[in-house]
Amino acid sequence: MAIPAAALAKQFEEIYLPDEAEPVLLPRNSPALHLVQRIRDEAHRFAVTYHRRLRGKRQVESALDGLPGVGPARKKALIERFGSAAAVRRASVEELQAVPGITDSLARSIQTALAADPE
Protein backbone atom coordinates (compact mmCIF):
# COMPACT_ATOMS: atom_id res chain seq x y z
CA MET A 1 0.00 0.00 0.00
CA ALA A 2 1.46 3.34 -1.04
CA ILE A 3 1.50 6.25 1.37
CA PRO A 4 -0.19 9.31 -0.14
CA ALA A 5 2.25 12.15 -0.68
CA ALA A 6 2.19 15.73 -1.83
CA ALA A 7 4.73 18.54 -2.10
CA LEU A 8 4.16 22.20 -1.29
CA ALA A 9 6.32 24.60 -3.27
CA LYS A 10 7.28 27.43 -0.95
CA GLN A 11 7.43 30.45 -3.25
CA PHE A 12 3.99 30.25 -4.87
CA GLU A 13 2.46 27.76 -2.40
CA GLU A 14 1.60 25.32 -5.17
CA ILE A 15 0.64 21.77 -4.21
CA TYR A 16 2.20 19.07 -6.39
CA LEU A 17 0.70 15.59 -6.44
CA PRO A 18 2.24 12.38 -7.82
CA ASP A 19 1.34 11.62 -11.43
CA GLU A 20 -0.15 15.11 -11.91
CA ALA A 21 1.56 17.47 -14.37
CA GLU A 22 -0.08 20.64 -13.08
CA PRO A 23 0.00 21.81 -9.46
CA VAL A 24 -3.11 22.41 -7.39
CA LEU A 25 -3.57 26.10 -6.60
CA LEU A 26 -5.58 27.01 -3.52
CA PRO A 27 -6.71 30.57 -2.81
CA ARG A 28 -4.37 32.50 -0.51
CA ASN A 29 -7.04 32.86 2.17
CA SER A 30 -8.13 29.21 1.98
CA PRO A 31 -8.24 27.33 5.31
CA ALA A 32 -7.05 24.24 3.41
CA LEU A 33 -3.93 26.11 2.23
CA HIS A 34 -3.27 27.33 5.77
CA LEU A 35 -3.54 23.78 7.08
CA VAL A 36 -1.09 22.46 4.47
CA GLN A 37 1.32 25.33 5.28
CA ARG A 38 1.17 24.54 9.00
CA ILE A 39 1.83 20.87 8.32
CA ARG A 40 4.82 21.79 6.16
CA ASP A 41 6.15 24.25 8.75
CA GLU A 42 5.78 21.71 11.57
CA ALA A 43 7.54 18.99 9.55
CA HIS A 44 10.37 21.44 8.83
CA ARG A 45 10.62 22.48 12.49
CA PHE A 46 10.74 18.83 13.56
CA ALA A 47 13.48 18.00 11.03
CA VAL A 48 15.60 21.02 11.99
CA THR A 49 15.28 20.22 15.71
CA TYR A 50 16.25 16.59 15.10
CA HIS A 51 19.34 17.50 13.07
CA ARG A 52 20.43 20.10 15.61
CA ARG A 53 20.18 17.45 18.32
CA LEU A 54 22.28 15.04 16.25
CA ARG A 55 24.88 17.72 15.58
CA GLY A 56 24.98 18.61 19.28
CA LYS A 57 25.56 14.98 20.25
CA ARG A 58 28.42 14.67 17.75
CA GLN A 59 30.07 17.75 19.22
CA VAL A 60 30.20 16.27 22.72
CA GLU A 61 31.32 12.78 21.70
CA SER A 62 34.99 11.96 21.95
CA ALA A 63 37.38 9.11 21.32
CA LEU A 64 37.29 8.44 25.08
CA ASP A 65 33.62 7.43 25.00
CA GLY A 66 33.18 3.69 25.21
CA LEU A 67 36.73 2.87 26.28
CA PRO A 68 36.68 -0.08 28.70
CA GLY A 69 37.42 1.13 32.22
CA VAL A 70 36.90 4.80 31.35
CA GLY A 71 33.64 6.13 32.71
CA PRO A 72 32.51 9.72 33.13
CA ALA A 73 34.79 10.44 36.13
CA ARG A 74 37.97 9.09 34.50
CA LYS A 75 37.06 10.75 31.19
CA LYS A 76 36.68 14.07 33.03
CA ALA A 77 40.01 13.58 34.82
CA LEU A 78 41.79 12.79 31.52
CA ILE A 79 40.30 15.82 29.76
CA GLU A 80 41.14 18.09 32.70
CA ARG A 81 44.75 16.83 32.70
CA PHE A 82 45.37 16.77 28.93
CA GLY A 83 42.80 19.22 27.55
CA SER A 84 41.48 17.04 24.71
CA ALA A 85 41.06 13.48 23.50
CA ALA A 86 43.76 14.14 20.89
CA ALA A 87 46.21 15.07 23.66
CA VAL A 88 45.26 11.92 25.58
CA ARG A 89 46.01 9.95 22.39
CA ARG A 90 49.53 11.48 22.27
CA ALA A 91 50.23 10.87 25.97
CA SER A 92 52.65 8.21 27.10
CA VAL A 93 51.68 5.39 29.46
CA GLU A 94 53.58 7.18 32.24
CA GLU A 95 51.70 10.44 31.62
CA LEU A 96 48.37 8.58 31.64
CA GLN A 97 49.29 6.86 34.93
CA ALA A 98 49.86 10.29 36.52
CA VAL A 99 46.11 10.92 36.28
CA PRO A 100 44.29 9.90 39.48
CA GLY A 101 42.39 6.63 38.99
CA ILE A 102 44.43 5.47 35.97
CA THR A 103 46.39 2.29 36.73
CA ASP A 104 49.26 0.90 34.66
CA SER A 105 47.06 -1.70 32.98
CA LEU A 106 44.30 0.85 32.29
CA ALA A 107 46.83 3.32 30.86
CA ARG A 108 48.12 0.62 28.48
CA SER A 109 44.54 -0.33 27.57
CA ILE A 110 43.68 3.32 26.82
CA GLN A 111 46.79 3.77 24.72
CA THR A 112 46.12 0.57 22.75
CA ALA A 113 42.45 1.43 22.15
CA LEU A 114 43.22 4.99 21.05
CA ALA A 115 46.03 3.83 18.76
CA ALA A 116 43.59 1.42 17.05
CA ASP A 117 40.91 4.14 16.65
CA PRO A 118 41.47 6.12 13.41
CA GLU A 119 39.69 9.16 14.99
Explain how this protein is built.
This protein has 119 residues and is mainly α. The protein folds into two domains: 7-60, no CATH class; 72-116. Helices cover 55% and strands 3% of the residues. The chain has helices at residues 31-60, 72-82, 85-90, 93-97, 104-116, and strands spanning 7-8, 15-16. The protein has a two-stranded antiparallel ribbon. A hairpin with a 6-residue loop joins strand 1 (7-8) and strand 2. 8% of the residues are buried.
Helix and strand arrangement:
Blueprint: E1 7-8, E2 15-16, H1 31-60, H2 72-82, H3 85-90, H4 93-97, H5 104-116
Antiparallel strand pairs: 1-2
Tally of helical segments: 5
Strand numbers in spatial order across the main sheet = 1-2
Radius of gyration: 26 Å
Average pLDDT rating: 88
What's this entry about, in short?
The chain is mainly α and 119 residues long. Helix content is 55%, strand content 3%. It is rod-shaped, with a radius of gyration of 26 Å.
Features:
119 residues, mainly alpha, two-stranded antiparallel sheet, 2 strands, rod-shaped
